[in-house]
Structures are given as structure tokens and as C-alpha cells.
From TrEMBL:
Belongs to the TRAP transporter small permease family. It comes from Roseovarius mucosus DSM 17069. Part of the tripartite ATP-independent periplasmic (TRAP) transport system. PANTHER family: 2,3-DIKETO-L-GULONATE TRAP TRANSPORTER SMALL PERMEASE PROTEIN YIAM (PTHR35011), TRAP TRANSPORTER SMALL PERMEASE PROTEIN (PTHR35011:SF10). Its main location: membrane. The lineage of its organism: Bacteria, Pseudomonadati, Pseudomonadota, Alphaproteobacteria, Rhodobacterales. The chain crosses the membrane at residues 21-51, 63-82, 103-123, 145-171. One of its GO terms (cellular component) is plasma membrane. This is TRAP transporter small permease protein.
């Protein structure tokens, strides 16, 4: 709502844990961006093969779908680090700093719990696909554990960034909701 936090990056101070998580989140963001670029290149190649060379495509559409989903999941931690997720700060702006910090602790704790449950079931889903040798029902027949690996990895990195945000908040390295006192 308010433009206070736009462009704000989660602070790490000199804390080695926070700096390591920030580095991992940044790396995940770069990998996510590379996956999007690869999707665009593959889409252009697919268009060239279909409409210029009048050929058939086998793997391109499926690869683009898997790359875009993986890019979304792997990019979660980077977007969290940049405070890019949707944030309505009407209530945090209306309450005093102490209450704002308490609200931020509750919010981060609930977010951590929800993402941890999603990570648990995401890992279980990936493991079933890996253990049972699931493949896609397409001509390409890719082993599904490969694209499904983005679920536990992406959610694990997101969970790690949320924990880092909570640690930074509790150690007073970062402000609640990224909002400085006015």
C-alpha cells in the first residue's frame, strides 16, 4: 500500500547466517532468471522449427512449462529477500513499533509453519515420483522427478529465507515488515 518498502532488501548486517542465506537466495534468483531466458530461447526455437522449417517439435512445449514453473518456485526466496511479495501494510503502519514487531514475529512464524508443511508434502510428492519412476505421458517421456525437484528445493530455499527474516527481526538487524519508524 505505502511505498516505504519498495526497493528495500532484507538486511543481513554482519551475521554470517543471514549473509549465507542472502547469497543462496540471490543465486536462486539468478538461476530463476536464467530459466526464464532459456524458456524464451526454447520458445523461439520452437516457433522457428514449426513455422519456418515446417517441422515438428517433441520436447519444447513441455520443457518451457517445466522451466517456467521451476523458475517461479526457485525465485520465491529471492523475491522474499527483495520484499517483492504482496504486502498490505495498513495495519503495520497503524500500530506502534513494539506491536509492529510482535505482529511481524507472528506473521513470519505462521508463514514458516505453512511453508514447512508445503515443503514436507512437496518433498513427499517428489520422492514418490522418483521412487516409482514416473515419466510424463508425452513423446519426450521425461522422468518427472527432475522437474518435480523444483518443489522441495524452491520451498526449502523460501523457508530458509523466511527463517533468516525472522532471525534478522529478532536480532534487531532488520525492521518489522521492512518499515522504518516515521
Amino acid at each position: 500500500m505505502a511505498g516505504h518498502a519498495s526497493g528495500a532488501v532484507a538486511r543481513t548486517g554482519q551475521n554470517p547466517f543471514l549473509r549465507a542465506v542472502a547469497a543462496l537466495s540471490t543465486l536462486a534468483g539468478w538461476i530463476s532468471a536464467a530459466m526464464i531466458v532459456a524458456s524464451v530461447v526454447i520458445t523461439c526455437q520452437m516457433i522457428w522449427v514449426r513455422f519456418v522449417l515446417n517441422g515438428t517439435t517433441v520436447w519444447q512445449t513441455e520443457a518451457v512449462v517445466y522451466l517456467m514453473i521451476a523458475a517461479t518456485l526457485l525465485g520465491l526466496s529471492y523475491v522474499q529477500r527483495l520484499r517483492g511479495h504482496v504486502n498490505v501494510d495498513l495495519i503495520p503502519l497503524a500500530v506502534p513499533r513494539r506491536a509492529r514487531k510482535g505482529l511481524a514475529v507472528v506473521t513470519l512464524t505462521l508463514s514458516i509453519a505453512i511453508v514447512a508443511v508445503m515443503l514436507w508434502y512437496g518433498f513427499e510428492f517428489w520422492h514418490v515420483a522418483w521412487a516409482r519412476g514416473w515419466t510424463s505421458d508425452t513423446v519426450w517421456a521425461i522422468d518427472l522427478w527432475i522437474p518435480y525437484l523444483a518443489i522441495p528445493v524452491g520451498l526449502g530455499l523460501f523457508l530458509l529465507q523466511l527463517v533468516a527474516d525472522l532471525v534478522a527481526l529478532l536480532l534487531n538487524i532488520d525492521a518489522p515488515f521492512g518499515l522504518e519508524d516515521v
